[in-house]
Amino acid sequence: TVVVGIPASGVGEPRSPIVGDVVKKLTALGAGVLIERGATDASFATPASLGDVAWADSTAEVVAGADVLWTINGLPADAEAQLRPGQVLMGLLQPYASAEHAQTLADAGVTAFAMELLPRISRAQSMDILSSQGAAAGYQCVLIAAARAPKFFPMLTYAAGTIRPSRVLVIGAGVAGLQAVATAKRLGAIVHGYDVRPETREQVESLGAKFVDTGVSAAGEGGYARELTDAERAQQASALAKAVAESDVVITTAAVPGRRAPLIVTRAMLDAMRPGSVVVDMAAETGGNVEGTVAGKDMRVGPARVVGPVNLPGRMPVHTSEMFARNLFNFTAPMIVDGALAIDWSDEVIAGTALTHRGRVVHDGVARALG
Ligand code: NAD
After folding, report:
1. Pocket test for ligand 1, best of 92, 116, 120, 200 (most atoms within 8 A of CB)
2. Residue 224: pLDDT above 90?
3. Mean pLDDT over all residues of the chain?
4. Cα–Cα–Cα angle for 206, 209, 213, nearest 5°?
5. What is the model's pLDDT at position 369?
6. Distance (Å, rounded) from C-alpha 25 to C-alpha 15?
């Protein structure tokens, strides 16, 4: 039987990629589940809720006993050193972060699937961890902004008058940004959305928000955006400056895969905001969309408050662990055939997500980016 192992996630990571529901599905496929004791405490999955699983006392024991390792962010270095050739590792492995790390995994002979690399095609949607966790992140950004704003989000009529609704601008209308738009709308704000991919206009408008048109269009490969040229960046900045200045809250979620997050909101734009304005930069961990953001900090920058939250999906680990586990199950299930591991390399979803296999870094885009 194939054993799926769940080591404890690292310090500061409350999510764990397993829930009872997914244990049942794995069991139905004939797979076994081996979990490190305590691994699910922070995600509130009790041993009773997990059902029929085996427990290990250490990460080393899980790595030794598992054929397939499910992780949130990969393994610590000492556990990685223990991996065996042919073993399968899955998680958000940050494939573009370091050439050395990719080579370490290749040298260990493991088949590593970096879930960030999953092709964005319809068939793969149920496996899409960036999407499920991104939706949670977009939602959380709005809650953070609402909790810090010195204003109501909704219009409010009270005995002595009427409060005007807050204006929220969401920059970057991918999965996270659209969820931020929807959440801000639910809280009653007047919402504007902006992105460089032209198809996002309709998506923003279908949520009842208005689209900010800067005239810049920059669709790239695979449904993602490309980096802007200097001229496009200047054009974007002059059009966005006005929209930023008119907003009470700005939420930024812009990203280009494998690159530093684009810098979009400058210090001059922040200085033109009203006192008490709130900016939440979801891209803080990858360099920031806002000038002066610091990941993990909540700071005054000119008249605004700039928040750079980290690990947003980790703030709601019950649901994000459940989504993560389901995504990994949908990705893994086709690899378990008659109780044995059988990876179909002709499947573009599987091949496209592989970072390393049989001693090599097999993902072209990553190999190219890392040189
Ligand atoms: P992402 O996290 O890479 O980027 C977030 C957003 O930032 C994107 O919408 C991007 O266009 C935008 N952006 C980049 N540079 C910008 C700039 N300079 N100014 C403003 N915005 C900028 O993207 P994502 O949310 O992971 O996904 C992008 C798109 O991929 C989705 O919206 C969707 O169309 C597609 N997608 C498809 C599937 C699927 O079919 N399986 C799944 C998920 C996403």
Report:
1. 120
2. no
3. 96
4. 100
5. 83
6. 20
